[in-house]
Every structure is written in structure tokens, then in C-alpha cells.
């Protein structure tokens, strides 16, 4: 009987070694109990006495554990072409700023994206050896038009299952904008002005309004991840206007 040929690995890993090699997290999934079920994204329960996440129970800056990072690396995100790739592929080989926004129709996150594209220059990132990616949770069919709004070169992906969001601890669901004293400096529009901006932008770039824009109650956050299975900065939103200042996130990535 001939020997069985070794299984092919899905990705090459030239220049990478040890536990940070991409095939390490792809070749061996996180261990689970024999009868364990894959958990669906968390949702608040309406049952009497159920524990519901609040801004006070969310650990805003807690770094995800090694197990959480490994599990998240296995989960898939989708690019603008509809291709699904492991989340870990975004940061395994390079330090990466990962910005999780809310839904594609959120005017507050559009304000944040305008701030991000105005303050972050690709040349700045290249010089520092850092990459930046943005993740939303709507349909991948929205990505091309959304990027046109900001004329950004930064890659954008979606996590419509919310599994990456939840695994990294972004489990708070709310429409609460929070007090004015805690409003992010990037916010330029109020309710009416924000809605108007979103509509105008959608018309300008031909946003496909029939596509799923995402979960309107899901909050986002900012992380500095990689290279390898590590996270050196974490921030989770507690209100809809609470993205971390992008300058602070860049500073955590070693960019002055």
C-alpha cells in the first residue's frame, strides 16, 4: 500500500516562522469539546433576569486573550468581491490597525471614516510597516460604493455574522449616543444633518440601497493586531459616538 500524500496547506508562509505562521492557525482549528456547539453571535435576551450587556459591563480596553485571538483568526470575513478569507490573514504577517465600524448607513461612522481618511496617509503607514483595514457588518455588495464616498485606498471587509465582533468582545448592542461630554471629536453632524449627509453620499456614489447595510445596534472598536497571534491595543465602543481618536490608535501602533 502506498503512503498517503501529506495534506496540502492552504497558504504559503515564506519568511514567517514559529507560531505566527498563517498555516498554524489554519491547519489546526481551536480545540472544542466533542459535543460542543459553535456559538451564534450574542444577542440580548428578553427573558426575566437575563444579563444584558451595558456600557458599564463592557471592558473597554481589555486585550483579547490568546484563545480569543486564535479563534478570531479562524473566523472569516468577506472582501468586496465576495471572497471569504480568514480574519487572521489580515494581520498575521504585519502589524495591522483594525477598525470595526457599525453599519454602512451610520452617519456617525461616516464622520469617523472622513476623519480617518483625512488624518491617515498611506505613506505614513508604509514607512512604519503598518497596515490599516476597516471592517463593517453589512453586505459585501456595499463595499465598493462605500469606499468611493471617502476615496480611500484602505481595504474594507465585512463580518455579516458578527462572529469576529463577538469573539473580540464587541458584544454591546445599543442605539445610545451617550452624553454630549463623551461625544467623539470626529462627530461633525447631528441627527438631521447626519441623515442628510448619508442620503447625499448614497446618491453621489450609487449606494445599492437594496443591499443589507448591517446591524444598526452593533457597536465597533479599534484594535492593533499582529504580526502573529497578538493584540497590543484594544478599544470597544460603549456608545454610538465613541470611536477612539484615530491618532491614539496610530500611536498605539507606533506611529507618531
From TrEMBL:
<feature type="region of interest" description="Disordered">
    <location>
        <begin position="1"/>
        <end position="59"/>
    </location>
</feature>
<dbReference type="Pfam" id="PF13911">
    <property type="entry name" value="AhpC-TSA_2"/>
</dbReference>
<protein>
    <recommendedName>
        <fullName>AhpC-TSA-domain-containing protein</fullName>
    </recommendedName>
</protein>
<dbReference type="InterPro" id="IPR032801">
    <property type="entry name" value="PXL2A/B/C"/>
</dbReference>
<dbReference type="InterPro" id="IPR036249">
    <property type="entry name" value="Thioredoxin-like_sf"/>
</dbReference>
Amino acid at each position: 500500500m502506498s503512503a498517503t500524500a501529506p495534506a496540502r496547506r492552504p497558504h504559503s508562509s515564506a519568511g514567517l516562522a514559529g507560531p505566527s505562521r498563517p498555516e498554524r492557525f489554519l491547519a489546526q482549528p481551536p480545540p472544542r469539546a466533542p459535543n460542543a456547539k459553535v456559538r451564534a453571535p450574542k444577542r440580548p435576551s428578553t427573558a426575566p433576569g437575563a444579563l444584558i450587556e451595558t456600557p458599564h459591563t463592557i471592558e473597554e480596553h481589555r486585550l483579547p486573550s490568546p484563545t480569543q485571538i486564535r479563534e478570531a483568526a479562524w473566523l472569516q470575513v468577506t472582501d468586496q468581491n465576495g471572497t471569504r478569507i480568514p480574519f487572521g490573514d489580515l494581520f498575521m504577517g504585519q502589524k495591522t490597525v483594525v477598525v470595526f465600524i457599525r453599519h454602512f448607513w451610520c452617519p456617525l461612522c461616516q464622520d469617523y471614516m472622513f476623519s480617518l481618511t483625512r488624518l491617515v496617509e498611506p505613506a505614513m503607514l508604509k514607512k512604519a510597516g503598518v497596515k490599516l483595514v476597516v471592517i463593517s457588518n453589512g453586505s459585501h455588495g456595499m463595499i465598493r460604493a462605500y469606499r468611493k464616498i471617502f476615496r480611500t485606498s484602505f481595504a474594507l471587509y465585512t463580518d455579516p455574522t458578527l462572529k469576529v465582533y463577538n469573539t473580540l468582545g464587541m458584544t454591546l448592542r445599543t442605539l445610545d449616543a451617550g452624553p454630549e461630554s463623551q461625544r467623539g471629536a470626529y462627530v461633525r453632524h447631528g441627527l438631521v444633518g447626519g441623515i442628510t449627509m448619508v442620503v447625499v453620499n448614497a446618491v453621489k456614489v450609487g449606494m445599492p440601497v437594496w443591499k443589507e447595510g448591517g446591524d444598526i445596534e452593533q457597536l465597533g472598536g479599534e484594535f492593533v493586531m499582529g504580526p502573529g497571534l497578538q493584540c497590543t491595543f484594544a478599544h470597544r465602543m460603549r456608545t454610538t459616538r465613541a470611536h477612539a481618536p484615530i491618532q491614539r490608535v496610530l500611536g498605539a501602533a507606533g506611529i507618531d
